[in-house]
Amino acid sequence: MGKRTDFYKLDQEFTEEERRLRDTVRSFVEKEYLPDIAGHFEAGTFPLAIVPQLGKLGLLGLKYEGYGCAGGSNVDYGLVCQELEWGDSGLRSFMSVQTSLVMHPLITFGSEEQKEKYLPELATGRLIGCFGLTEPDHGSDPSGMTTRAVRDGDSYVLRGAKMWITNGSIADLAIVWAKLDGEVAGFIVEKGRPGFSAPETKRKLSLRASVTSELVFDDVRVPAAQRLPDANGLAAPLSCLNEARYGIAWGAIGAAMACYESALDYARERTQFGRPIAGFQLSQEKLVWMLSEITKAQLLALRLGRLKDAGDARHWHVSLAKLNNVGAALEIARLARSLHGASGITLEYPPLRHAANLESVATYEGTHEIHTLIVGREITGLSAFR
Ligand code: TGC
Ligand code: FAD
Question: Do 237 and 186 contact (CB within 8 A), yes or no?
Fold first, then answer.
């Protein structure tokens, strides 16, 4: 198993159990996922065969208790995100959507029957879920959503469309957010319902090893029992985003570490002007900047994780970590690519694949600008949104 970047000996801050979990996921990603990722990225495919393995390792719904979930902590979940994204953002995306955006709303807003029906199957990976909030005309501002639900006897009828939905075409069920009498409500829509389709979004240059889709609801009738009974208002889907954004703050560190580690190895080996390029002052400046950003991001994520486990993390704390760590990872990926020279533009090395992915990671779950404004609103007391 490869050694990872840990300049400030943060290993000492993790419990033995946390380290064991991290190392298990680390070796799984190296052995079972990494050998095929370049091929999947090139082909634009998600390796579906990995899903039951994620389930077997207890990584789907890891941080929840009961219903077949492993009952881990937020720090455990963060470490898993870091290790999966060291492989590729597409792998972390799959797991975080399933865990934070599908299982989390079921746990938090679902009825007992809904939990018993879906959670154990989602935990093993026998069922795959997706989360539909974004619409073609409403991304950063989901409050404007136009997807509608109308009550009709024992059913709700859904009309509208969602866009850019991770796992959409491979999902057995979608958690769909729609306005019901003017207020946001959540629905579980199973695959195969008449009027429901999920065409895959093609020609992506980013997150190519992840499925992204549209969700189309053409008067889709869902039984009333498929509404999430405790989800009332926009705060419900936004609270799910906190969970996924938290994981992204850790995941981005994994991507950054993969880029830095590859750049360091390459720069030590590659010679120009008769000496290793790592010996040039300008290369060292790049490497040291990357290391210092990774170290700060690691400290930020760990502190946030401990705050979250203590119940003290607020959504603006999560925003700061998401925007900082993803922003740093993106810059690190680009610098790492530059250290690889022309070789860096191929799939033989990870930086450009990660850089391309991180463009999506910086956009989804709230863009860099939106998180800046969330923190800005908290510290000034003034909203820049409206
Ligand atoms: P605002 O007035 O701020 O809030 C409405 C209500 O929600 C509450 N709230 C939150 N609650 C929990 N967690 C949060 N993060 C919350 N943010 C706000 C708020 O207190 C209020 O509650 P109440 O009870 O008073 O009604 O709403 P706003 O319309 O002004 O919007 C604020 C804004 C811009 C921050 C929000 O709309 C936002 O976060 N926009 C970004 C949208 C976004 O992140 N979309 C992500 C879609 S999912 C996705 O990208 C998955 S990618 C997955 C993958 O592949 O990994
Ligand atoms: P817009 O909101 O149109 O923003 C365009 C630009 O304007 C951005 O730079 C933005 O920062 C800027 N901007 C907007 N408002 C402001 C402001 N007030 N001040 C300053 N700048 C502003 N969504 C889901 O619901 N589920 C998913 O599973 C999902 N998966 C995704 C997977 C991928 C690969 C991608 C790329 C996206 C995914 N999304 C998903 C959608 C994602 O959440 C949205 O793309 C994101 O919220 C931004 O919305 P938008 O793309 O419509 O951009």
Answer: yes
Cβ 139 vs Cβ 100: under 8 Å: no
* Contact by Cβ (8 Å): 95, 264: no
> Does residue 133 line the site of ligand 2, with CB under 6 A?
yes
pLDDT in tens, the chain (386 residues): 878 899 999 999 999 999 999 999 999 999 999 999 999 999 999 999 999 999 999 999 999 999 999 999 999 999 999 999 999 999 999 999 999 999 999 999 999 999 999 999 999 999 999 999 999 999 999 999 999 999 999 999 999 999 999 999 999 999 999 999 999 999 999 999 999 999 999 999 999 999 999 999 999 999 999 999 999 999 999 999 999 999 999 999 999 999 999 999 999 999 999 999 999 999 999 999 999 999 999 999 999 999 999 999 999 999 999 999 999 999 999 999 999 999 999 999 999 999 999 999 999 999 999 999 999 999 999 999 99
Encode burial over 199-228: b for 16+ CB neighbours within 10 A, e otherwise.
eeeeebebbbbbbbbbbbbeebbbeeebbb
From 85, 102, 140, 330, mutation site for ligand 2 pocket: most ligand atoms within 8 A of C-beta: 140
For atom 25 of ligand 1, the residue with the nearest CA is 235
Q: Considering only CA atoms, which residue is closest to atom 26 of ligand 1?
A: 235
Helical (H) or strand (E) element with 296: helix 281-309
Pocket test for ligand 1, best of 88, 232, 238 (most atoms within 8 A of CB): 238
Q: How far apart are CA 116 and CA 106, in angstroms?
A: 10
- What distance in angstroms lies between residue 188's CA and the mean position of ligand 1's atoms? 20
Catalytic residues: 365
Q: Is the CB of 239 under 6 A from ligand 1?
A: yes
Q: Which atom of ligand 2 is nearest to the CA of 177?
A: 25
